[in-house]
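explain this.
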Amino acid sequence: MHPRAITLGGRPLAGGRLPAICAPLVGRTRADLAREAAAVAALAPDLIEWRVDFFEALADTAEVLAAARAVRQAAGAIPILFTRRARREGGQAIALSEPEVLAVYAAVAASGSVDAMDFEMENAPADVARVRELTRAHGLALVLSFHDFQRTPTTQELQARFAQAHRLEADVAKLAVMPQSMDDVHRLLGATLAASASLPIPVVSMAMGGLGAVSRLCGGAFGSALTFAVGSAASAPGQIPIADVRATLAVLQRSSAA
């Protein structure tokens, strides 16, 4: 079975090439975000992720919506992924309760400013179901994710996480883990290959930090549909500048096509 590309708005990212490139936005104010989004968009990633947990005015829904419009305008035709990363999975500390976070997700989903949303599959089942309902109602893709900044789970655990995302009706399953050895990186890539062959949804994976950098470059060969690269500022350890990722992927793709 051929690995699946992520489809947004009826179109596969990067024309179906794996992996597509996503660049994060981590600006703390609307002005910062607008400048950052313009700079990142100029580098032409396939997807832009707005990490809203970095946004200082997250408690002000009107300001969040204004910032979303600013990012949308700066991004042009580049799709936008909206993400509040939970603190336990590597995100920034925020003052909002989970019901307040869900209210922000609902407002942004209805705004027409984003194309996809990320939510951790370890959140409360009712909250995961609510975000699933929101994304369906507004025609957005749902990325259900899992992050472990301490270790790389066993092969069985990794496979179970991919399957869990599918069971929870994700459109995309994403895993990010921290390797302690190259054996960990190898195990993640193997689990990704197996999941990409067995699941009917796109899968995304990355090993973080210096040891895991190779996974961000060769993950597509193992079925990972997306890699995260630095446009302006990194959102996780081990991210590589877009230009370097694009150049390396071009070499790998030419070689594999030869």
Remarks:
- Residues 182-198 form the longest helix (17 residues).
